[in-house]
Amino acid sequence: MKSRENGMALMIAVWAVIIIGAFVAGMVATGGSDAAITANRIDAARARHLANAGVNRAIVALADPALREKLPLAQMFAVRLEDEAEIEVIVRDSCGAIDLNWAPSALLRAYGVSAGMKPAAAERFAQAIVTRQQTVLGAEVADLNAGPWQSLDQLADLPDMDSTLLQGLRSGLTINCREAGADPDMAGVNVKRALGLAGIGGSRSHKLAYEIEVKASLPSGAKATVQVAIWLSREPGPPYYYVTGWRTQ
How far is residue 5's CA from residue 57's CA, in Å, rounded to a whole number? Predict the structure, then answer.
């Protein structure tokens, strides 16, 4: 009888060890997973903060007339930190692009052709943009399909549009200049070609509207992209600028 009791006690002890071991292993695995998730979140947050820092640094340079003159527009410049994190910054004059809310049909059609559209598709592209330009401004703001152009992302809804074409079009378009033409001195190749095809001489930039894109990347692979549109104040005192658009990816 005693031997039987000893055997039962041994079995209970063995099962207890197995159960405790499984519990501890589970806790260790969960702890390791939680630690990895936390590390990823920290890196993602750091990437966003670095991108925001790059944006703020660019805004400071634009708001200072002396620094603004030295800023390389439409050229990427990078900053590498001690831990191999990298920040890439591109600043462009918005008036080197074609404003969706102000451009005439002829210029939009020419830009579509310059970007690789067939003439018929470029005509539909231009007419769709002009139709929205003419939408009554009193429409419901919450309904993006009822008002004028509020984002370049809305181009994805146009006929004949795919992701590749949209990506190619974006670099020469804006909603931040508020002028009918584009400054050829600030424009890219396709916009310059479009000005020529449309027979439009372009218009000089008012040097108030700028777009900033900052990409931050960490050695861990975490990345963040921030795109910001601003208008500089016409007055010498504060506020020195106004943010007209902000997008984080």
Answer: 77
